[in-house]
């Protein structure tokens, strides 16, 4: 069975024949024009090349929690293995590993998830205020995240954490640009 590619002259849509696999002859009543690009309700949505604030919030919080949980579980695994005592049974060793990795994974996952939540909120606020989404927006969001996350420990700790957060965010933006330029992904 030979298949033919039915493309239209319009590049923004393609022709679709729902019965093409059933050897039904093609006529005009069975062809549909399907769009090849995403459809938006408003034209303003199509001009934006970024996630919405809700998607940002979900993405940063979720990936922060997941990454922190995995890193904390790995750390807890090694501390559980180090806490073995002479004469422990296999059940007791497994219990120590599970308790240690569960506790460390939960606590680190929550901490980094909160950092992601704060970062997403500050970044969305800065983008809404300035109506720009560039590298400086991300650096300001990193600075604000570090400062807010350590604000309870005092002004000096908040300032240091803010500078470290801004530097980390700037390094991430620079690394992302380098990857886009030199790594063909």
Poorly predicted residue ranges: 1-9
| Estimated radius of gyration | 26 Å
H/E topology pattern? EEHHHHH
- How many helices? The count is 5
Question: What is the makeup of the main sheet?
Answer: 2 strands, antiparallel
Q: How much strand? A: under 5%
What share of the residues lie within helices? 55-70%
On the 0 to 100 scale, the average pLDDT is: 85
- C-alpha geometry: flat
- Placed side by side, the strands forming the largest sheet appear as 1-2
SSE-based structural type: mainly alpha
Measure the end-to-end span: 35 Å
Number-wise, the strands total: 2
Describe the model.
It is a single chain. This protein is mostly helical and 185 residues long. The chain has a domain at 1-37. The chain contains 5 helices and 2 strands; from the N terminus they run ββααααα. It has helices at 43-47, 53-82, 90-130, 135-149, 155-182; strands at residues 13-16, 32-35. A two-stranded antiparallel sheet has the order 1-2. The longest helix has 41 residues, at 90-130. It is flat and about 80 Å long. It is a multi-pass membrane protein. InterPro entries: Tim23-like (IPR045238). Pfam families: Tim17 (PF02466).
